[in-house]
Amino acid sequence: MAKKSKTVFVCQECGYESQRWSGKCICGAWNSFVEEKVVEPLEADVRRRATGSAKAQSLKSVGTAEYERMDTGIGELNRVLGNGMVRGSLILISGEPGIGKSTIIIQAAANLASKGERVLYVSGEESEEQIKLRADRVCPNLSDNLFVLSETNMENIQTVCDNLEPAFIVIDSIQTVYSDMIDSAPGSVSQVRLIGNHLMKLGKTKNIPILIVAHVTKSGDLAGPKTVEHLVDCVLNFSGERDQDLRILRSYKNRFGTTSEIGAFRMGEKGLEEVQDVSETFLENKEEKTEGSVTTAVYEGSRPVMFEIQALVAPANVGFARRTSLGIDNSRLNMILAVMEKKAGLQLINQDVYLNVVGGIRPEGTGTDLAAVLAIYSSYKRIAPKKRTLAMGEVGLTGDLRSIQNAEKIIKEASRLGYEQVILPFRNAEKLSFNDLNCKVFGVKSIRDAIRIFEA
Q1: CATH numeric code, 281-455
Q2: Cβ-based neighbours of 304, under 8 Å, separated by 6 or more
Q3: Residue 125 to residue 123: CA distance in whole angstroms
Q4: Superfamily of domain 69-276
């Protein structure tokens, strides 16, 4: 069906629109009307985000305001979202099967419903009875405002939304929903793209936050077209080892907040429980001084996160030496070993090297390089640190240490936790001006200097 167009006359002085041309506008300006053509959009076009006719406006005249946020009742989830869920936003959450996506979603939905918000949980994978069984386990008091719908047809979901008028919608998952407008199977590229556009229009026009669950591939990447990631306002990812209790929620995209925050949860009998002190969880044996183990830290959003890096160096029996790392990129490990051989004089060519970040966390950036160097050195020399040590810094190919961000805040946390010494790049140390620290701070320029202090 072709779109209809009409002609209007717009005053350049005040913006008044008229169906006919006039020499004088109601604002008093003469000969200020300019002819413009306006195309009337089709009402059934779900691909458009806005409603009404298409019209550009001056960016300077656009008003800005604080976005209204909804409290999910889960502090760690609010932290990752940027202090709450913005009304009208599209949130995409992904993760491996069984990691806890549906659990945290039903908990957040139940919390919002208990505050009087009408919530619609749309499931294309489970029946209403299965959702009720999970809700009874993780949500002690269910509200009458939490509605569930087992449906995969987008047109039927739209009808239910029009009748129910919910304040929050959950789609679990987008790969199971299809539209009658195209003949492709659910989960195909064209269907996922169309459903994404449909949900975007629904959320933006009615100011409803929509949380979309997405499947992941075998490699852990988000399944489906990348268009969905660009379409939504926030992309969350749940990670963690299934045989461990700890779960990490990380934001990879957030138009209404930072992407550096992480949320920590522990899987319990009654669902996901918030972990306030993440460092305490990763540092179970923080009082012990163990061979091949060094503590490091990264700054995630608004808090430092400390964890152990463990290394095991053993003679290679046959063939080539093995290089295995968990939590740190394997190519990064090979580079660190090459620098240690060249700049620190270690003979590691015939040694198997295993490196592990304890707790299953995968730190971003290169600030953990120095801790990896000292852990490998400790295991190779079979020496344990004499003092509780925290090390951080990026190792360059020349063996020097490059500065890192937020070192001051990490050192304060290390002092609070009782660490005796902190080894970090010289450029970070010379900027410090703390007099009330309970630990010694050593600024070093190279890995040789760091090893010398570590052995002392």
Answers
A1: 3.30.230.10
A2: 279, 297, 298, 406, 409, 410, 413
A3: 6
A4: P-loop containing nucleotide triphosphate hydrolases (3.40.50.300)
pLDDT at residue 314, rounded to an integer:
94
User: What tokens appear for 218 in the block?
Assistant: 């075998």
In the chain, which residues have pLDDT < 70? 1-5, 15, 37-55, 63-66, 218-226, 242-243, 284-288, 434-436
**What is the layout of strands, in order, in the sheet containing 323-326?**
323-326, 351-357, 303-315, 293-300, 389-391, 421-425, 440-444
According to DSSP, the β-strands at 4-11 and 33-40 are antiparallel
Tokens standing for residue 335: 């580079």
DSSP-based helix, strand, coil % in the chain, nearest 5: 30, 30, 45
In terms of Cβ atoms closer than 10 Å to its own Cβ (0-12, 13-18, 19+), residue 51 is: exposed
Same topology between domain 69-276 and domain 281-455: no
Query: 3-state secondary structure string, 165-231?
Result: CCCEEEEECHHHCECCCCCCCCCCHHHHHHHHHHHHHHHHHHCCCEEEEECECCCCCECCCCHHHHH
Residues 401, 73: Cα–Cα separation, whole Å: 43
Q: What is the DSSP letter of 446?
A: B
Distance CA 217, CA 102 (A): 18
Among residues 450, 419, 282, 418, the alpha carbon closest in space to that of 356 is found at: 282
pTM above 0.85, yes or no: no
| Dist CA 184 CA 350 (whole Å) | 56
- Using CA atoms, how far apart are residues 300 and 259, in angstroms rounded to an integer? 9
- Residues 331-384 have pLDDT tens digits of 999 999 999 999 999 999 999 999 999 877 788 889 999 999 999 999 999 999
Domains of the chain, by residue range, sit at: 1-42, 69-276, 281-455
Q: What is the pLDDT of residue 46?
A: 53
